[in-house]
Design a protein that fits this description.
It contains seven helices and six strands. It is an alpha+beta fold. The strands form two sheets. The protein has a four-stranded antiparallel sheet. Helix 5 crosses helix 6.
Length: 197
């Protein structure tokens, strides 16, 4: 059985603008399609930098990053269309007027474009993503009035509506209550995108 390489980093170093020391140094990594990988380390170890580099948000100073064979340096936009990314810091203001359903639906705009109104299919995919995260009861609630853990699940559902080939989740356990944190590993395994080439 052959496997498809989803992510490949070769000797990647990433340096933030204005810094001298690299946040990532000579990282070589291969992740196959369908694989579930946890990156664990202390604060400031470079976990967020790694995800931002894979997603093409930070250019590597040295080395190469490929996602499904596409070089991130030259095909960054196409790469980001294949990735569902949930950043570590996304907390919204209490007065945020968008509902949870609106926020999840926004994940479709990368596919349909901001100038095109969402279709019934887009709304159905949004409802499906919310059911997968068991947050359908939050659909009409304002995003700014949800707990940190609820917001985190909304953001994961938003990433899923893109129908990504890769999910990058930065600190997916950080805002969750203990019960949700215990359930999250099984939930993440169930959300693994198909490993089609």
């Amino acid at each position: 059985m052959t496997t498809t390489t989803a992510i490949r980093l070769e000797a990647v170093s990433t340096i933030y603008e204005g810094e001298r020391r690299p946040a990532l140094r000579e990282v070589t990594l291969t992740v196959d399609a369908g694989e579930l990988v946890y990156v664990v380390g202390p604060n400031a170890a470079g976990k967020t930098t790694l995800l931002e580099t894979i997603n093409g948000l930070l250019p590597p100073a040295t080395g190469t990053v490929q996602v499904y064979g596409m070089d991130v340096a030259t095909h960054g936009r196409r790469v980001r269309q294949t990735i569902g990314y949930v950043p570590q810091d996304f907390m919204v203001e209490p007065g945020e007027p968008y509902t949870a359903f609106d926020v999840v639906l926004m994940g479709r705009y990368g596919m349909i474009g901001f100038l095109h109104p969402p279709t019934d299919e887009d709304r159905a995919k949004t409802a499906t993503a919310m059911r997968r995260l068991a947050i359908q009861d939050l659909a009409r609630r304002p995003m700014g009035r949800l707990s940190g853990g609820q917001q985190q699940k909304v953001m994961i559902a938003r990433a899923l509506t893109k129908e990504p080939r890769i999910l990058l989740l930065d600190e997916p356990f950080s805002n969750l209550d203990p019960a949700s944190r215990a359930q999250m590993p099984a939930l993440l395994r169930s959300l693994q995108p198909p490993s089609s080439s």
